[in-house]
Amino acid sequence: MNREMSETLVRAGPGTRMGNLMRRYWVPVLLSSEIAEPDGPPVRAPILGEKLLAFRDTSGQVGLINEFCSHRGVSLYFGRNEEHGVRCSYHGVKFDRHGRCVEVPSAPQLCERMNIKGYPCIERAGIVWAYMGPPDKQPEPPELEWCLLPDSHVFVSKRLQECNYLQAMEGGIDTAHVSYVHRYEVDIDPMHQGTRALEYIKADGNVVFTIENTPFGLTLFGRRNGDADSYYWRITQWLFPWFTLIPPFGDHALGGHVWVPIDDEHCWAWSINWQPSRPLTGHERAEMQAGKGIHVEYEPGTFRPKANKGNDYLIDRVAQKEKRAYSGVFGFSMQDASLQESMGPIQDHEAERLLPTDRGIVMARRMLYDAALALERGVEPPALNASAQRVRAAGVLLDRGQDPVQWASRELADGLQQAVYSI
User: Fold this and answer.
1) 132 near 45, Cβ under 8 Å?
2) Cβ partners under 8 Å of residue 82, min gap 6
3) What is the sign of the dihedral through the CA atoms of 391, 238, 275 and 251?
4) Which of 185, 216, 285, 312 has CA 20 to 30 A from 327's CA?
5) Model pTM?
6) How far apart are the first and last CA of the chain?
7) Pick from 164, 162, 163, 122: nearest CA to 143
8) From CA 301, how far away is CA 349, in angstroms rounded?
9) 260-310 pLDDT, tens per residue?
10) d(CA 161, CA 158)
């Protein structure tokens, strides 16, 4: 990938091509639980290169505003959240959840010139989402399956990833790496163990891809040898611009991710598990809270993983040698993140030498790049229709002569109305 394309894709701040594109979608910003109480403490919420402040006002509504007071630039993090707004602790200037200045004690007549930036917010799946684009272009709220289910069916976590969003997200698109970096821990992880899929994944690391462009992004069909007369197909969904859906394992909870830039060198990696037709059991939820599956343990009081680049991800060379952890790092998310962060804060894309298994990554990059350039010319971005997000990933054995794309057009066409395909 040349430097111009790379720079376009990795820069997401205000006024950048990718930043302008991403702001046309609802952006996951923080967990609702981070601002659980009305008039509770405000929370710093940096996103897409902007330093913002989140709070829940007296009526329970969420505000997302510029972190800094328009008077003399003081951080409103130190302000008072009370009586339907945040008051700056320096000189008492007060702002409501929309960023409107509602009080200037020393000069009431100047309120109108003191407004700061504020973004509309909604809450779905325990996440606060913000729309940061042109007001007249606001799309419908997200309709991914896990956004539409009762809270009892869904578990959501987020973690800090210390690299650019693109190299993180590409790990979610790339299904080929599962045969390697995750191959030992899948046998004991409570959200993967005991499924036939693991046999096929570990037996065949030479994945052959068929990829289909869709109204929502890409469907990636990864083929491995199955039984004597079948192939095992892992069907991954990439939903423009930052969602991935993971092919399921047996009866375990379905899973997915969202990869959202904080700035150009950090991103939020959101991890979601859900059961479409029933609440998560107490045991399932406890394992997720303990950091199993696609979730992590944290440094106390933060969203930084306990295993991080500051401690070499707690790498265990004995476990690596004994084939208990392929890379020596434990935990699926940190097995991925350790390798992605090792590329540097922003990967040198000009130095990479891609392989056939990277075809899906190449197509996703091209789709993002083309959409960013088209937006500059006034062309509306793709995948703004929220109903197109009502899709699932799948794992299925098909006869060797069967076309997976045709199978998917028939069996996955009705989105959430069909059965869950998993082995």
Assistant:
1) no
2) 39, 58
3) positive
4) 285
5) 0.95
6) 37
7) 122
8) 35
9) 999 999 999 999 999 999 999 999 999 999 999 999 999 999 999 999 999
10) 9
